[in-house]
Amino acid sequence: MRIVPAAASLLLGLSLFAPSAGATIVWRGGFETNDLSQWGEKINANRWSVVTTPVREGTHAGRVELHEGDVGPSNLIRAELGYHPAAATFQNSERWYAFSIRVETTPPLQNLDHQFTYWECDAPLYRQSMSFHLKGEDLTFQTSAQKGPNITPYKGKLAAGAWHDFVLHVKWSLDATQGFVELFYDGALVVPKTAVRTMYATQDNAGNDLMPLGSFIHQGLFLGAPVAGKPTEVLYVDGTVEATTKEDVFPPVADAGPDGASPSGADASIAGSDGGTTSSSSSGSAAPASPTPASTDDGGCNQSGAAPFALPLLLLPLLRRRRRPR
Predict the structure, then answer these.
(1) Are 20 and 286 in contact, with CB atoms under 8 Å apart?
(2) How far, in Å, CA of 134 to CA of 115, rounded?
(3) Is residue 110 in some structural domain?
(4) Sign of the Cα pseudo-torsion (231, 132, 279, 98, in order)
(5) Is 227 helix (H, G, I), strand (E, B) or coil?
(6) Distance CA 253, CA 57 (A)
(7) Which of 204, 213, 304, 325 is most buried, judged by most C-beta within 10 A?
(8) Residues 6+ apart with CB under 8 A from 147
């Protein structure tokens, strides 16, 4: 069948918005199913609910409450969801992890060390390799390498009442010269590629690595030891994905409306992970560079040639409401 020029132009215009063919989502841990089915592990599942407001992307988000008596494994206070990928998928692989977090001013998050996202190696060691912490509005990202010190590559602020976006790029490796972490916060590069051993392994008595261990991810609220009189605390989670390409997690286009507004008010598109200096923003992270404006050159187009592209242009405001391709 022959496609007339106008129809061909329309198809070309629509194709500009199609997801990249090379993009690969390994796992999605969201709540668009209106339940917790995308998560394999549930700790104090009764503290989790699916809400339609506030949301960061799509139409549903996760809401978790942490109460004083929410005791979980190891007799620690926690309400979490977990995902356990196959251990064989880790060594020498690269992954992009993206997720969004929100806390509210009422009730506030207490001035206690909460872990809201972390990676922990499988049995028999169960040791954390990377973790995100909140103490009030104080935000930290930590790495805990086997055969190495605990390091805090990033310290910042996480303001209540707004969504905050995280993208963590990891090279999983037992070799400290090959493994790395790279962190984007609210669209800004805050931890450039930093070499670190990101995996754990069983070892012999001499400390030599034997069997590499995979890692699982937990999200929610993990407090640790019980705290008497601790009030109920609330956290929102949305859009968690594990991917193999940067294209799967960028660009994070800000949602419209007060519930989805980025605290910096910027578009937060990222052109590259190694460019330029950055400045401070209200979230405590570096502010992203302004996106490059589209060319205003007519390119020889006239009014009669604009009609085939009308539909993609009309759809553009709807497409921009989504941070990441679904």
Answers:
(1) no
(2) 6
(3) yes
(4) negative
(5) coil
(6) 10
(7) 213
(8) 176, 197, 207
Q: Which two tokens stand for residue 151?
A: 């390091």
Over its length of 326 residues, how does the chain's per-residue pLDDT go in tens digits?
444 444 444 444 444 334 444 558 999 999 999 999 999 999 999 999 999 999 999 999 999 999 999 999 999 999 999 999 988 889 999 999 999 999 998 888 999 999 999 999 999 999 999 999 999 999 999 999 998 889 999 999 999 999 999 999 999 999 999 999 999 999 999 999 999 999 999 999 999 999 999 999 999 999 999 999 999 999 999 999 999 999 999 854 555 444 544 444 333 333 334 433 333 333 444 433 333 333 334 444 444 444 444 444 444 444 444 455 44
- Radius of gyration, CA atoms only, the chain: 22
Domain for residue 307, yes or no? no
Is there a domain that residue 310 lies in?
A: no
pTM: 0.73
Q: Answer whether 188's CB lies under 8 Å from 288's CB.
A: yes
Residues whose CB is less than 8 angstroms from the CB of residue 8 and which lie 6 or more positions away in sequence, other chains included: none
Assigned token pair, 292? 């490059």
Angle, CA 154 vertex, CA 149 and CA 155 arms, to 5°: 115
Query: What is the rounded (10 degree) CA torsion for 32, 33, 34, 39?
Result: -100
Domain CATH for 39: 2.60.120.200
Does the residue 167 lie in any domain? yes
Residue 234 φ then ψ, to 5°: -130, 140
Q: Among residues 34, 25, 29, which one has the least CA distance to residue 59?
A: 34
Amino acid making up residue 310: A
Which residue segment(s) compose the domain that 86 sits in?
5-10+20-287
Q: Cβ neighbours of residue 114 under 8 Å, at least 6 residues apart?
A: 66, 133, 134, 135, 221, 222, 223, 233
User: How many C-beta atoms lie closer than 10 Å to residue 221's C-beta?
Assistant: 25
Structural domain count of the chain:
1
In this structure, how many other beta carbons lie within 10 angstroms of the beta carbon of residue 124?
A: 8
